[in-house]
Amino acid sequence: MVNAKMEEALNKQLNAELYSGYLYLSMAAYFEEIDLGGFANWMRVQAQEELSHGMRFYDYIVQRGARVTLSEIEKPQSSWESPVDVFEHVLSHEKTVSGLIDDLVDLSIEERDHSTNNFLQWFVAEQVEEEESASSALNKVKLANESSNGLFLVDSDFGTRVYTPDTSE
């Protein structure tokens, strides 16, 4: 059983993960609108990952005998200046999420909640991967902006990304 303070924090993170999925869907819609279907695919895969992260929090809250409390999901941004602007936002957002996870880990230590701390370690490692993926994608998009065929090539590359559900527990 988690205490009330931890329950509230876990529910807040559940909301943040759902917001992330919503944000990436908004980015996908932006790319659909400007006919970059591969970029849209990259964002749709990212949205699926974030929604699965939200479900991890949901399931953990239930497993620990706590109450899931869903709250309003903030409306995400819906337009950007350029593909580079979008991916700069992605990297910034992932760094923010890493900070939220770090805060949760700190709280789990403060509350001496070892089970939650153990649960959160998966997210600590996942955020390293998320930041690396966002940084790599941003670098590709920046390079593509310097070439007349660059966006086409990156769009083709991003179109091959596939969502693979994580099966580790």
Automatic annotation (TrEMBL):
A Pfam family this chain is assigned to: Ferritin
EC number: 1.16.3.2
GO BP terms in the entry: intracellular iron ion homeostasis; iron ion transport
Gene behind the chain: ftnA_4
Protein name as annotated: Bacterial non-heme ferritin
UniProt key word Translocase: no
Gene Ontology terms, MF aspect: ferric iron binding; ferrous iron binding; ferroxidase activity; identical protein binding
Catalytic class of the enzyme: oxidoreductase
SUPFAM superfamilies from the UniProt entry: Ferritin-like
Chain ranges of the Ferritin-like diiron domain: 1-145
Naturally occurring in which organism (per UniProt): bioreactor metagenome
Alphabetic keyword roster: Iron, Iron storage, Metal-binding, Oxidoreductase
Listed GO CC annotations: cytosol
Keyword Metal-binding carried by entry: yes
